[in-house]
Amino acid sequence: MKKTNALRILDSFKIEYECLEYIFKENEIDALSVAAKIGQEPGLVFKTLVAVSAGKEYFVFVIPGNSELDLKQAAKLTNSKKIDLIPVKELTALTGYIRGGCSPIGMKKQFPTYIDKSAELHKEIFISAGIRGMQIKVPVEGLLRVTNARLVELTI
């Protein structure tokens, strides 16, 4: 198993986690496909979305794989007039991660991070380990601590 930045950071915070590796295809990197591959409910496999405000501020949103980000709510939470997901072509330069392997842990820069409130219904959730083909089962409390995130309503 390859140690990713996300795993090294969890180790440095002494947060226990479990890695699940899976075989992926280019067209099967979305959260629903990943949930099926690792045998988990889509509501437990959270996806990481990066957005930008009209004022060019960046934010990270972590939501269940079977949900959609409420952009109006996201703008309200971030005190932004408008917020949009960044174009996929900008993801790697901004975060250091590629589509299908974007983790809320260990981006190039620490952006304000928001995790959907539904995460608090679970002791642990699954997030990307920072590469395609690997998920981390991580305690919600540990994820909040390492990302300095807020639990909020994010989905439609």
Tags for this entry?
single chain, 156 residues, alpha/beta, 5-stranded mixed sheet, 3-stranded antiparallel sheet, 26% strand
How does this model look, in words?
The protein is α/β, with parallel strands linked by helices and 156 residues long. The chain has a single domain (5-152), classed as Alpha-Beta Complex (YbaK protein). It is built from 5 helices and 8 strands. It has helices at 5-12, 31-38, 71-77, 88-95, 140-147; strands spanning 18-21, 46-53, 58-64, 83-85, 113-116, 124-128, 134-139, 150-152. The protein has a 5-stranded mixed β-sheet with strand order 4-2-3-5-8. The protein has a 3-stranded antiparallel β-sheet with strand order 1-7-6. Strand 6 and strand 7 form a beta hairpin.
Task: Give a quick precis of the structure.
The chain has 156 residues and is an alpha/beta fold.
List the helices and strands and how they pair.
Layout: H1 5-12, E1 18-21, H2 31-38, E2 46-53, E3 58-64, H3 71-77, E4 83-85, H4 88-95, E5 113-116, E6 124-128, E7 134-139, H5 140-147, E8 150-152
Parallel strand pairs: 3-5, 5-8
Antiparallel strand pairs: 1-7, 2-3, 2-4, 6-7
